[in-house]
Amino acid sequence: QVQLVESGGGLVQPGGSLRLSCAASGISIRFKTMGWYRQAPGKQRELVADITGGDTTNYADSVKARFTISRDNAKNTVYLQMNSLKPEDTAVYYCGARSQYRPSVEFWGQGTQVTVSS
After folding, report:
1. Distance from C-alpha of 114 to C-alpha of 103, rounded to nearest angstrom
2. Would you say residue 32 has pLDDT above 90?
3. Cα torsion at 58, 59, 60, 66 (round to 10°)?
4. Long-range interactions of 47-56: CB distance < 8 A, separation 24+
5. Looking at residue 100, what is its pLDDT?
6. What percent of the chain has a predicted confidence (pLDDT) above 90?
7. N or C: which end of the chain has fewer CB within 10 A?
8. DSSP β-ladder status, 57-59 and 46-51
């Protein structure tokens, strides 16, 4: 049984930082493209950042230079370091795993809430 478990969300003030983690079990992430996605109330889920098995990264324009995605294959875990957070970053953040050859996500985590507010 494949599980992706996100952690690290919470309430943070504007300008603050959070580090999200996504721990995988039942699957090796080594050759998967791993992504972080988010969904704000009333909006569609969107890609925030992803990282291929070869460590090529891709970011949404809205988070470039503020967020960093990384992976630790030995720990089977993917991270999202979020700096200079803004209120518009408030959303539920989801971890997703997909084949590098297909655009659709195969496995999703349950999500973790990130709220940026003073």
Report:
1. 25
2. yes
3. -170
4. 48/80, 48/93, 49/80, 51/78, 52/100, 53/100
5. 86
6. 96
7. N
8. antiparallel
Average pLDDT over the chain, rounded to whole?
Answer: 97
Tell me: pLDDT of 59 over 90.
yes
Cα separation, 4 vs 10, whole angstroms: 18
**Phi and psi of 89, rounded to 5°?**
-85, -5
Using 50, 70 and 90 to split pLDDT, how confident is the model at 87?
very high
The amino acid present at 40, given as its one-letter code, is A
Confidence of residue 12 (pLDDT cuts 50, 70, 90): very high
What does the alpha-carbon distance between residue 78 and residue 22 come to, in Å, rounded to a whole number? Answer: 5
Other beta carbons within 10 Å of 24: 22
CB burial class (10 A; 0-12, 13-18, 19+) of residue 60?
A: middle
Of residues 91, 95, 90, the one with CA closest to residue 80:
95
